[in-house]
Amino acid sequence: MSFGGQITLERGSSNKDMVVGMNLKSEDKVATGNDGSVELLVDDDKHILARENVYGHSGF
To answer: Reduced to 3 states, what is the DSSP secondary structure of residue 19?
Structure first.
């Protein structure tokens, strides 16, 4: 995982700081702000790239 800018991880009823290498749970939600971007590694060969102003559920 790599990221920059404003990123919010919603886990349950709280927000968490994202760190490189963390595992996401299926109920987690990731949001990027105006200057945010995040790249998530799914399995060993698939990536999800979210640029600014995106809101998504990690259980894609």
So the answer is: coil
Q: How far is CA 1 from CA 13, 14, 32, 46, 55, in A?
A: 23, 21, 14, 11, 17
Let me know: does 52 contact 5? Beta carbons within 8 Å.
Answer: yes
Per-residue pLDDT at 13: 92
Q: What is the pTM of this model?
A: 0.68
Planar angle of CA 24, 26, 13, nearest 5 degrees: 85
Q: Are 19 and 36 in contact (CB under 8 A)?
A: no
Tens-digit pLDDT profile for residues 22-55: 888 888 988 888 888 888 888 878 878 788 887 7
Nearest alpha carbon to residue 36 among 47, 48, 50: 50
